[in-house]
Amino acid sequence: MGVVLVAGATSALGQQVVQRLLAQGYQVRSLVPNLSQGQEILGGEADLIVADVTQPDTLTSKTLGSIDAIVYCPNVALLSAGINAHSPTAFFDVQNLAQAAALVLSQPGENTLFDFTYPSANLKELWGAVDDVVMGGVSQSEMRLSDSSALFVGNVSTANSGGFASIRTRNFSSAIALGNYQGIKLRVKGDGNRYKFLLRTEEKWDGVAYSHSFDTVSDQWINIEIPFSALVPVFRAKTVPNDGPLDPNRICSCQFMLSKFEYDGALNPQFTPGPFQLEIASVKAYGGPTLPQFVLLSVATSPQLQSDSTSLSQDEERVRSSGIPHTIIRLHQSTEITGDRSQETANPKDIAELCVQVLAQPEACNRTFEKAVN
Question: I want to staple 358 with a disulfide (CB 3.0 to 4.6 A). Which of 15, 119, 291, 364 is the partner?
Answer without folding.
Answer: 364
